[in-house]
UniProtKB/TrEMBL annotation:
This is Peroxidase. The record marks R68 as: Transition state stabilizer. It is an enzyme of class 1 (oxidoreductase). Belongs to the peroxidase family. Classical plant (class III) peroxidase subfamily. Belongs to the peroxidase family. Ascorbate peroxidase subfamily.
């Protein structure tokens, strides 16, 4: 009946070896529960939903922002709300200030409102990481994805360092092999990459994220030949060549999916197939023979993609989460780690922070990392 400890230990080693071979350093953690706050804060999920729907009612673009914040949080040190921290006890410059985040994060205020609403109902019970996971779901539902359950019980981390992004966060110039590698490091599959990239069916990208495809693309072509010429011409109208001293915050933002810009649907895949994917990373999904068939599949089946998207969001939401009272904390404020008790040692001197990550204004996305 009982497996010997040795059997258990050795199968553990086999698994560890397999994981080691795949270079996984992030895992999908078991232990989250649907209805985690049933007893301790039964109205929490509904309260978050009310805040998110009312904020999206005032500004449709927030839906995309919330989904992206969730992805960026989960990808770096797991879904622990580390992306929400304005500062850290260690003095590290937080993830928020990385060039992949900074002013391009959209919807942070909605999370603050949701947190203070929930906090006034049940103080110190509901983690910021769970609020973000609920909010991302509610945003997806507001944008047209059928309702899906979100397991909860995540605890909030206290580490956040923008230096964790390079080598972990995909960038707009990445191609499939590199992105698949980064997804695999988080315990996510190549299919998850294709499925979740469909989030680029809502929201948009600032011109500097793709302007290298519009001007001086290569020695032989000013414009990326993969772009539909009419689309490229349109983009060049909206995104003028960058000039010295341009303020990136003033850069125009272009919808990923001009056809159904506010609807989370499979139109993204048809747009990419038609040469109207904005980012090199989007286009790479059809250039790569390993992912192209999946793009074709989703382009032809919205219901299938929507169902896969919900499932992949659930999986993303379990990446490297902190669970149980011994791990992490329930932050009082999502932007700050709770103050230590009285006799804590004074915090280390803070690193001088750049105004906005290492972003070099006017350098295009080459300023990334
Ligand atoms: C895998 C490679 C990915 C790359 C290289 C990438 C890159 C980007 C870039 C450069 C932007 C534009 C940001 C801006 O200019 O403000 C963006 C926006 C966005 N991304 Fe991704 N992304 C990836 C995957 C994902 C995934 C997996 C999700 C969610 C599940 C996601 C959700 C979004 C959303 C919703 C927006 C629009 C945000 C807004 O309009 O505020 N992305 N992404
Ligand atoms: C919370 O309640 C829902 C609905 O009644 C139920 O499906 C779920 O299993 C419950 N979860 C927990 C952890 O009690």
């Amino acid at each position: 009946m009982t497996m010997s400890w040795l059997t258990v230990a050795s199968s553990f080693l086999v698994v560890a070896a397999l994981l080691g071979a795949a270079a996984v350093d992030g895992v999908i953690v078991d232990g989250l529960k649907v209805g985690f706050y049933n007893k301790t804060c039964p109205a929490a999920e509904e309260a978050v939903r009310d805040v998110v729907t009312s904020e999206i009612g005032m500004d449709r673009t927030i839906a995309a922002g919330l989904i992206r914040i969730f992805f960026h949080d989960c990808f770096i040190t797991g879904c622990d709300a580390s992306i929400l921290l304005d500062e850290t006890p260690s003095g590290d410059v937080p993830e928020k200030e990385s060039s992949a985040n900074g002013f391009t994060l959209h919807g942070l205020r909605t999370i603050d409102v949701a947190k203070s609403t929930v906090e006034s109902m049940c103080p110190r019970i509901v983690s910021c990481a769970d609020i973000l996971a609920f909010a991302a779901r509610d945003a997806a539902v507001a944008a047209g994805i059928p309702f899906y359950d979100v397991s909860a019980g995540r605890r909030d981390g206290s580490h956040s360092n923008m230096d964790d992004l390079p080598g972990n966060m995909p960038t707009p110039s990445h191609h499939v092999p590199r992105m698949s590698e980064l997804f695999a490091k988080r315990g996510l599959s190549q299919e998850d990459l294709v499925v979740l990239s469909g989030a680029h069916s809502i929201g948009g990208a600032h011109c500097f994220m793709f302007s290298n495809r519009l001007y001086g693309f290569s020695q032989n072509a000013d414009v990326d030949p993969a772009l539909d010429p009419a689309f490229a011409a349109q983009l060049r109208q909206v995104c003028p060549p960058r000039r010295e001293g341009d303020d990136p915050q003033q850069a125009p933002k272009v919808s990923f999916d001009g056809r159904t810009a506010e609807k989370l649907d499979n139109a993204y895949y048809s747009e990419v197939l038609a040469g109207r994917g904005l980012l090199t990373s989007d286009d790479s999904l059809i250039k790569d023979p390993e992912t192209k068939p999946t793009v074709d599949l989703f382009a032809g089946d919205d219901a299938l993609w929507q169902q896969k998207f919900a499932a992949a969001m659930q999986k993303l939401g379990a990446v490297d989460v902190l669970v149980g009272e011994k791990q992490g904390q329930i932050r009082r404020q999502c932007r700050l780690v709770n103050k230590q008790s009285r006799q804590s040692t004074p915090s280390r001197p803070r690193r001088k922070r750049p105004r906005f990550g290492r972003f070099v204004p006017g350098s295009g996305f080459h300023g990334f990392f």
